[in-house]
Amino acid sequence: MKKEILVFLGIGVIFSYLIMNFAKSTKVRDDSIGSGTEYDEGLDSEKLKTEYVVKDALGDPTLDFSNAPMNAAKAVWRASDIRKNMLNYFPKFNLMKDYVHNRLLPSPFRKALLNKIEDVEDKYLTGKISSEEAISRLKHF
């Protein structure tokens, strides 16, 4: 009887391990979707990150796109943690806009991003797009 229980527990542990690893791998793949690397193959995003990421007075990362071309700004934005953190505020669009104001220095890219957030906000709040569509539009900007 004890041997059967141990075999049953062993199978349960192995099954749980397999399920947990599968869940982790799907999360990693989901987070990588829309990272922007497929759109900007010719740009080295790691090099661009070091060029456009500056630290503010508190040591927090801030993006400075004031002299950046739009395609380089988009490549860095799509690969940045700042973008991921901004998306965590969804559907609180006012917090998303405040976060962008605090983490991006004034630039044409920041203005375009804020316009995009307002456009998505209007369409989302009027019911023209779903929450999934709104997040997708913000992710792929």
Describe this structure in words.
The chain is mainly α and 141 residues long. Helix content is 67%, strand content 4%. A hairpin with a 5-residue loop joins strand 1 and strand 2. Helix 5 (93-103) runs antiparallel to helix 6 and helix 6 runs antiparallel to helix 7. The longest helix is centred in the N-terminal third of the chain and has 31 residues, at 2-32. Residues 27-43 have low confidence and may be disordered.
Index terms:
single chain, 141 residues, mainly alpha, 2 domains, two-stranded antiparallel sheet, 7 helices, 2 strands, elongated
How much beta, percentage-wise?
under 5%
Mean pLDDT over the full residue set? 80
Shape label: elongated
Count of strand segments: 2
**Major sheet characteristics:** 2 strands, antiparallel
Strand order of the largest sheet: 1-2
Can you summarize this structure?
This protein has 141 residues and is mainly α. It has helices spanning 2-32, 45-52, 70-79, 81-87, 93-103, 108-125, 131-139, and strands spanning 53-55, 61-63. The protein has two domains: 1-32; 37-139, no CATH class.
